[in-house]
Known about the structure:
Mean pLDDT is about 85; it is low at about 130-140. This protein is mostly beta strands. It is built from three helices and nine strands. The strands form two sheets. Strands 5-3-4-9-8 form a five-stranded antiparallel beta sheet, with no helix packed on it. About 10% of the residues lie in helices and about 30% in strands. It has helices at about 30-35, 85-90, 95-100, and strands at about 15-20, 25, 40-50, 55-60, 70, 80-85, 100-105, 105-110, 115-120. The longest helix is centred in the N-terminal third of the chain and has 6 residues, at about 30-35. It has one domain. The radius of gyration is 16 Å and the shape is globular.
Amino acid sequence: MPFIKFENTNRRYENRITVTKNYNFGFPSKFFDDSHLELYKYVVLYFNPETLEVGFQFSNSEDEKHKFKLFGAGTNGKGYGGNIVATSFFKNYNIDPKLVHGRYTPEKTVIEGIGELFVIKLIIKKAADVTVSGEVQQPT
């Protein structure tokens, strides 16, 4: 068998959803590919303030008024995942993304009256645990 050039550099092979410090939700390559997100244009967010769970519903509905545009190289076939800019979501619920940033493994579930969602549970890091560099210090 001949050698095959590896051309998938800079891809994230994680089946997770990321929360960035810049008010974004990210969908790394593996999650994007495994969930076939290239088929969708929008994301509708749901939130449970009691459990701090965020639900993601992927959609193509032009009629949905409260949707976020799905951006990224994955949306144009390049295979590098995608993201949504969700500033209004974070600010509406007074969630500081610097205190919840990180990687979350989603659970796929069906919610009656809503449909299929990918759900993550936000974990709030203590402000005192965040250093100037933004890295979270784990207790020793």
